[in-house]
Automatic annotation (TrEMBL):
InterPro entries for the chain: Apiosidase-like_cat_dom, DUF5060, Ig-like_fold
Protein name stated in the entry: DUF4038 domain-containing protein
Domain of life: Bacteria
Residue span, Apiosidase-like catalytic domain: 130-466
Database matches in Gene3D superfamilies: Glycosidases (3.20.20.80), Immunoglobulins (2.60.40.10)
Domain DUF5060: residue ranges: 26-94
Species whose genome carries this gene: Maribacter arenosus
Lineage, opening ranks: Bacteria, Pseudomonadati, Bacteroidota, Flavobacteriia, Flavobacteriales
Length: 545
């Protein structure tokens, strides 16, 4: 046969170290990788040809996955079986039907149970809950996002560095990492190297010219290895295609002026390359949500993402006012954190409160009430150490995260640190204004105290079913309270005190937890509706069945 067909298992070896006796059997939710070889030559394979695969099992389930170009004459399709005891057949399709290497290829494999220990894989990919308040796995297990913002990992970090980063964040309780999938500033300059002062790897050779058509495939092949490490450590990548708003150094970010077709093509490429693994799609970053290609990318994901993993928008610090830094440009503001609220493809809305170390809860609170319901979080609080190491230090981060959660940010919490988000190579690396910087390298910022407090939210809530939990301060005389009726009650009291909760069911237990350590202080059976914190410090109250 002239065309070389190769079927491999990508994630199998990440989470399932032993080889399979039967190479045609692959575990549920692991990624099966199919390689296709074109029989024709293309001047620019990335832009000229579309390839996809159709997968059908014995029950008649049919899933379609886009393919991606992986250099030279190679295209790959990555697919994760949704079951554990079915025979799957697949057929490839190409926009160029004359290319017999890409069009009309077929194959068969069988899905088997997953027996590894990675909870991201064992519980399946991500989707929204029925009530749209938060995220869950396909298994039904809820997933409270506890995110960090190592935005520059894809273009600055090495495998060794990401391994150290992911190990630290998993140990602390984080389960998601927000990333700019490429360096977005058209005017940024420096060596084309990772882990180099002023340097960054280029994903596209023509980005500095305002386009993303000339792909450097080796960039994404290396990015594969970084994604692998994150998922090994049970950290879900949050993919932002081409950033809007500030960007990396604020040097004329491409996302706000990009060709819409190029933006959609690239978003689809990311879907093809990474969409068979746990993922969250952040298709608008740090602006008003209305940049070129955003709406079209949302519609594309609705059509092409057969797993329907979460899709959303992250806004700039404005909502219903004109910020001073906007210099009179009204397009930055007055978006009210609700662009495309009515769109079916939109799953979540993320606010941003700016970097002035102010506890601003009104944005999330308003977003929670918007209709139709979309999951809500504060996607960017003040990063720890902003403004030359002064802002939002230590426990400030813990209080901010818990209170944003209590105000309706039920999708989860997000943390950030100056120097870490830029992935600074040395403490004195230049290129950022003081308001966004501090004299630390990425690994120095990795160990700032505030990250531990935010990560503990992940540990405290890890085994709780928070699916569609609601803000119900009305049941607690106006004090912070999240409720999943008759099953789960969560309150955060930043200064201790008492809590009276109406209508509690019988047979519940209470636990007071210190949010600074994650340790329980008092545990008991609920006998009344009044609860008094152990002291005047910050406390979390959990009521569970």
């Amino acid at each position: 046969m002239k065309n070389l067909l190769i079927i491999t298992v990508l994630m199998l070896y990440w989470v399932y170290p032993s080889c399979q006796e039967n190479p045609d059997e692959f575990p549920q939710w692991s990624t099966v990788e199919i390689s296709l070889s074109s029989t024709m030559e293309y001047a620019n394979p990335y832009t000229e040809v579309e390839v996809w695969g159709a997968f059908t099992n014995q029950k008649g389930d049919s899933l379609i996955r886009p393919a991606f170009w992986d250099g030279e004459n190679t295209w790959k399709i990555r697919f994760a079986p949704i079951d554990d005891d079915q025979t799957w057949t697949w057929t490839s399709f190409s926009s160029n039907t004359s290319d017999s290497g890409l069009n009309g290829q077929t194959g068969t494999f069988r899905s088997i149970p997953y027996s590894g220990s990675n909870t991201l894989i064992s519980n399946g990919l991500l989707k929204m809950t029925k009530g749209h308040r938060n995220v869950r796995h396909y298994s039904g297990k809820s997933f409270l996002v506890v995110g960090d913002t190592p935005w520059a990992i894809p273009f600055r970090a090495t495998e060794e560095q990401v391994n150290a980063y992911a190990n630290d964040r998993q140990q602390k309780g984080f389960n998601a990492a927000l990333m700019m999938t490429l360096q977005p500033d058209t005017k940024a300059e420096g060596p084309n190297e990772r882990n180099t002062v002023l340097g960054f790897k280029r994903a596209f050779a023509d980005l500095s010219d305002g386009h993303i058509n000339k792909m450097n495939v080796d960039y994404f092949q290396y990015y594969d290895s970084l994604v692998k490490i994150l998922i090994d450590y049970e950290i879900v990548p949050v993919y932002q295609p081409v950033f809007h708003g500030f960007g990396w150094k604020g040097l004329q970010v491409l996302g706000s002026n990009i060709n819409p077709q190029e933006y959609v093509r690239y978003t689809k490429y990311l879907l093809a390359r990474y969409g068979s693994m746990p993922a969250i799609w952040l298709i608008a970053g740090d602006h008003n949500g209305k940049d070129p290609g955003v709406k079209e990318s949302g519609e594309m994901l609705q059509k092409w993402d057969c797993y329907q993993q979460p899709v959303g928008i992250h806004y700039n610090p404005c909502d219903d006012y004109l910020a001073s830094w906007a210099s009179g440009d009204r397009s930055h503001c007055f978006h009210n954190n609700k662009s495309y609220q009515d769109e079916e493809w939109l799953d979540f809305q993320w606010a941003q409160t700016g970097h002035d170390a102010k506890h601003l809860y009104h944005k999330v609170e308003r977003m929670y009430d918007n209709q139709p319901i979309k999951a809500v979080a504060n996607g960017e609080p003040t990063y720890e150490g902003m403004d030359n190491g002064q802002n939002a230090l230590g426990w400030w981060q813990g209080e901010e995260a818990w209170m944003q959660l209590m105000h309706g940010g039920t999708m989860g919490v997000v943390y950030g640190a100056a120097s870490l988000w830029q992935w600074k190579i040395t403490p004195d690396e230049k290129g950022w204004e003081a308001w966004t910087d501090q004299p630390l390298s990425w690994d120095g910022a990795l160990h700032l105290e505030g990250s531990s407090f935010v990560g503990l939210i992940g540990k405290i809530t890890k085994n709780l079913d928070i699916s569609d939990i609601e803000k119900r301060w009305d049941l607690a005389e106006g004090k912070p309270l999240l409720v999943k009726e008759d099953q789960l009650y969560i309150s955060f009291l930043k200064n201790g005190g008492e809590l009276n909760i109406k209508g509690l069911p019988k047979n519940m237990k209470y636990t007071w937890i210190d949010p600074k350590t994650g340790l329980p202080k008092q545990i008991g059976k609920v006998t009344k509706n009044n609860f008094k914190a152990p002291n005047n410090g910050p406390w979390v109250l959990l009521l569970t069945k």
